[in-house]
């Protein structure tokens, strides 16, 4: 049976190379590509449009944009536009962002659950081509609609998925979203609690867990040389454990280790700082929370995430030969 498989692209590649990667992934039977938008480095929407334009079947998702920096009208119009470019192939992945980055650009992430709920529910109504009036704490709209004059007026098939980390956000995702984009840098058993929370949330809206899609980001470093694959991942984890401590917490990483890495890394971190601190990330952790190693080792680890409730692995090539990774997980 064919396994659903997706590719995750961030900023470690030339953007034009990304066009080659997504075309190659489509040829090899991948279902989707997801474009990151995390640090202040690469917007998700521009690459998504480019990927959609050079493929025919591949789904294109945001993995994930935040719900704070785009007005709800613009957010809905953006995904309507992407759906015009690639009908029924666009996925809106949205997350609550994180500090200190949000704070450093002037965003006060107060009441993140309510802010997300208002965004997602309004977004879904607008993409359903409804006329919407809503006055909440974060979303205020008066009689707005996606006023298409030239083009398709019918409701748009754009699933809205939440990149949830905390327990309350995960449960709410099961209640209001089309799916959960499950975290990376967690061990496969992390999914057990996530599934319990999604199940509880789904029940509130009369749904079952099988109605909630569960794609999952998986850090994946594939190399025919095991040690080289591990070292590539070690550099990524060094940066992420320092800059996104909520992921470190979900991964069960010692806060002492995180603090020591943070004492070496600046913001933004330089490559030299990452190299200096990377010895603090043990191989045991790399093997536990990523799919890193030879092709056989990477496939075995990704299968663990699938066995633990992931419906579609979203493979994040942290370096090396991206086409080798795609070949390793080819579904054609």
Secondary-structure map:
Elements: E1 6-9, H1 15-27, E2 32-35, H2 45-53, E3 59-62, E4 65-66, H3 72-85, E5 90-95, H4 101-104, H5 112-127, E6 132-135, E7 140-144, E8 160-163, H6 167-176, E9 179-180, H7 190-204, E10 215-222, H8 226-243, H9 245-250, H10 255-264, H11 271-277, H12 283-289, E11 291-293, H13 295-307, E12 312-317, H14 322-328
Parallel strand pairs: 1-2, 1-12, 2-3, 3-5, 4-5, 5-8, 8-9, 10-11, 10-12
Antiparallel strand pairs: 6-7
Task: Supply database-style keywords.
332 residues; alpha/beta; TIM Barrel; ten-stranded parallel sheet; two-stranded antiparallel sheet; 16% strand
> So what's the CATH class?
Alpha Beta
CATH architecture: Alpha-Beta Barrel
Overall spatial form: globular
Classify the fold: give the CATH topology: TIM Barrel
Strand content: 15-25%
Overall number of structural domains:
1
**Strand count, sense and closure of the main sheet?**
10 strands, parallel
**Percentage of residues assigned to helices:** 40-55%
Distance between the termini: 11 Å
Radius of gyration: 19 Å
* Structural class based on helices, strands and sheet pairing: alpha/beta
Helix count?
A: 14
- Mean pLDDT, to the nearest integer, reads 94
CATH superfamily: Luciferase-like domain
The H/E string reads: EHEHEEHEHHEEEHEHEHHHHHEHEH
Question: How many β-strand runs?
Answer: 12
Low-confidence stretches: none
């Amino acid at each position: 049976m064919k396994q659903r498989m997706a590719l995750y692209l961030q900023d470690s590649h030339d953007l034009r190379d990304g066009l080659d990667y997504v075309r190659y992934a489509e040829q090899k039977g991948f279902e989707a590509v997801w474009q990151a938008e995390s640090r202040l480095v690469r917007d998700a929407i521009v690459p998504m449009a480019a990927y959609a334009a050079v493929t025919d079947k591949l789904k294109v998702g945001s993995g994930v944009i935040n719900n704070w920096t785009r007005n709800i009208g613009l957010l809905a119009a953006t995904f309507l536009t992407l759906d015009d470019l690639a009908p029924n192939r666009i996925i809106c992945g949205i997350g609550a962002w994180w500090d200190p980055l949000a704070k450093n650009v002037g965003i006060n992430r107060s009441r993140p659950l309510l802010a997300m709920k208002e965004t997602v529910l309004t977004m879904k109504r607008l993409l359903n081509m409804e006329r919407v009036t809503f006055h909440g704490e974060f979303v205020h709209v008066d009689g707005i609609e996606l006023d298409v004059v030239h083009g398709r007026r019918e409701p748009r098939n754009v699933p809205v998925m939440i990149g949830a980390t905390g327990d309350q956000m995960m449960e709410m995702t099961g209640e209001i979203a089309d799916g959960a984009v499950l975290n990376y840098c967690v061990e496969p058993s992390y999914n057990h609690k996530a599934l319990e929370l999604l199940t509880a949330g789904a029940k509130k809206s009369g749904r079952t867990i099988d109605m909630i899609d569960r794609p999952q980001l998986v850090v994946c470093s594939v190399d025919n040389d095991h040690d080289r694959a591990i070292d590539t991942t070690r550099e990524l984890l060094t940066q992420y454990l320092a800059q996104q401590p909520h992921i470190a917490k979900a991964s069960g990483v010692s806060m002492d280790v995180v603090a020591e890495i943070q004492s070496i890394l600046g913001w933004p971190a330089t490559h030299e700082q990452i190299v200096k601190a990377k010895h603090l990330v043990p191989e045991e952790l790399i093997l536990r929370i990523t799919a890193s190693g030879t092709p056989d080792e990477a496939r075995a680890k990704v299968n663990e995430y699938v066995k633990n409730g992931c419906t579609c692995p979203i493979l994040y090539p942290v370096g090396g030969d991206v086409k080798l990774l795609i070949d390793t997980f080819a579904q054609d």
